[in-house]
Amino acid sequence: MMRKVIGIIVIIVGLGYVFMSFDFLPVIGDSTAPAHTHVSDYYIENALRDTHSPNLVTAVLADYRGFDTLLETTVMFSAGVCAVMILGSKSHIRNRFLVPKKILKGKPEPGVSAYKTVNKDVMVTLIAIMILLYAIYVLLHGEVGPGGGFQAGALMALSYIVSMMIAPDTRPLFSLSKANAAALAGIGVFIYAFTGLLTVFNGGMFLEYGRLPFPVSNEYLHTIGIMLIEVGVTIGVMATIITILKAIIERVRFDDDRD
Amino acid sequence: MMTGIEQFLADKGIYYLTFLLLSFGVYGIIACKNYMKKLICMNIMQVAAIVFFLSLGQKKGATIPVLIEGLTNADSYINPLTHALMLTAIVVSLGTTGVGLALLTRIREKFGSVEEDDIIRRQNKL
């Protein structure tokens, strides 16, 4: 009760202060607001010349702020490794807290769904393939239209999660063990960093796509560079999500587990 | 012709909504006794911050930040910078949620519950 009162007081004071001091914020839709006047105009007007990418978000994400995105991908990778390490220690099953068996007595057998049908298994295989196709479209189309590596990675992980959660008995489209998924996340980050290192070996700066060692024109070099790091980001994000999911599912105990 | 209150809501209304969402999250973190609910409230706060940034990136009469041939004016495209920043923020929030869930799994293993009262009771007993 006390903490609810404290919470309401904190929020009323905070909201009151905020509501009174909103004058300094710019009007929504005002194109002369401070956020639009400094670096954003440069990005919009020069992105096609600098990066040859029509999608400005991809241009900012992968080219102008490529180093930032590399570290974001590393943060994702470390989150996956962190989840594995938190849940990786092998504790004996006896040392874990067990729900008393008498609670479960008299209840129907858990783990078996009352609704038995092949429909969901069949539909899941179709839906998983469609999600995977859409993910590949989003990845490859990410440079010329809305899309990109992060979204494609999340979609690919979704296609795995859907088939694993809804139909655990059927064979999923692709299967990854926990260790393989963690390794794959590292490979994704490595592809990104290695693209940067290729340009360094060729005499450029880190992630300067114009210096990639391929015998094509400058425009295609930028396309190839952005595509390479998008693939790296996709693999990293997908594998990280699967790693976290696998690590939690291997360790967690539900109330209706009987082991 | 818009009246005064409509003009005010169109100009600044979204800020109040995002701060309302943020305060829902803060209140949930303070008031909820279930750690899972606390984690969800943290996610709500992150969503509020993301919506706030995205609303700062809007421009009146502008289109999405994908270049169209013949349209090179900077005022014709909404700000790509906030969108790029929030794209990574969403993914990082996914990572923090994953680590939080892993920690919750360990807490549930050790104390048998994610309710704060149960955990405090069990810790006093140990």
Molecular structure report:
The complex is a heterodimer of chains A (259) and B (126). Chain A is mostly helical. Chain A is built from 10 helices and no strands. In chain A, helix 3 (40-51) crosses helix 4, helix 5 runs antiparallel to helix 9 (178-201) and helix 5 packs parallel to helix 10. The longest helix of chain A has 34 residues, at 218-251. The two termini of chain A are 39 Å apart. The mean pLDDT of chain A is 83. With 126 residues, chain B is mainly alpha-helical. Chain B has one domain: Helix Hairpins. Helix content of chain B is 73%, strand content 0%. Chain B has 4 helices and no strands. Chain B has helices spanning 4-31, 35-56, 80-111, 116-125. Chain B is elongated and about 70 Å long. Chain B starts with a helix and ends with a helix. At the A-B interface, helix 1, helix 3, helix 4, helix 5 and helix 10 of A face helix 1 and helix 3 of B.
Average pLDDT number of chain A: 83
Low-confidence stretches of chain B: none
Named CATH architecture of chain B = Orthogonal Bundle
Radius of gyration of chain B: 21 Å
Q: Helices and strands of chain B: which structural class?
A: mainly alpha
In oligomeric terms, what are we looking at? heterodimer
Largest interface comes to: A-B, 69 and 56 residues
Instruction: Give the termini separation of chain B.
Output: 69 Å
Shape of chain A: globular
Compute the average pLDDT of chain B. Answer: 88
Main β sheet profile of chain A: none
